[in-house]
Amino acid sequence: MHDNWIGRTPQPNGWQHDWIAFRREQRLGFQLQLAAQNGFGGALQRDGEQLLARLDGLFDGYVPVPSLLHGDLWGGNHGFLADGTPVVFDPALYVGDRECDLAMSELFGGFAADFYAAYRASWPLDAGYAVRKTLYNLYHILNHANLFGGGYAAQAARMTAALLAHIR
């Protein structure tokens, strides 16, 4: 997989056999470095470093199946052709845990309930998804903080603290 972009932010995609290491280094660690460069320090950086060090604790007994991901699957990146055929566009492709796309699809309003019902009927979710959803969406919230500032950095700090509470 080649490096690409998530919005205006570079997205590193170097292949790693270890999903947790990939998440730590090429997703959260990368975004936290950008956040530090953009002046977002304090609790976000302190807790972010703790989360990176203890990330394995969010994957006890769960080994994701590598899947080709859209990478930016939110309501603004899907639509329908004139004949009603659903389409997705503006991908930020990479290989990772399928839960990443599902989590992103729920971040900014989500898709229709039928979409989630069909998905879960086809491939049920692991019990730990609810927590990992926050982890996977943290990447996108950090990216939004780096792109737009505003309250996204504070939201990322709250998400990081909540994730740490699950592995303490």
Q: Say which CATH homologous superfamily is assigned.
A: Aminoglycoside phosphotransferase (APH), C-terminal lobe
Number of strands: 6
Q: What is the total domain count?
A: 1
Helix fraction, binned, reads 40-55%
CATH class: Alpha Beta
Q: Which CATH architecture is right?
A: Alpha-Beta Complex
The shape is globular
| Poorly predicted segments | none
The averaged pLDDT comes out at 96
Summarize the structure.
With 168 residues, the chain is mainly alpha-helical. Helices cover 50% and strands 12% of the residues.
Question: What can you see in these coordinates?
Answer:
There is one protein chain. 50% of the residues lie in helices and 12% in strands. It has 168 residues and is mainly alpha-helical. The chain has one domain (4-166): Aminoglycoside 3'-phosphotransferase, Chain: A, domain 2. The strands form 3 sheets. A two-stranded antiparallel sheet has the order 1-2. It has a two-stranded antiparallel sheet with strand order 3-6. Strands 4-5 form a two-stranded antiparallel sheet. Strand 1 and strand 2 form a beta hairpin. It starts with a strand and ends with a helix. The model has no long low-confidence stretch (mean pLDDT 96).
Topology:
Layout (H helix, E strand, L loop, with lengths): L3 E3 L2 E3 L7 H19 L5 H11 L12 E4 L8 E3 L5 E3 L5 E4 L1 H9 L5 H10 L6 H20 L3 H15 L2
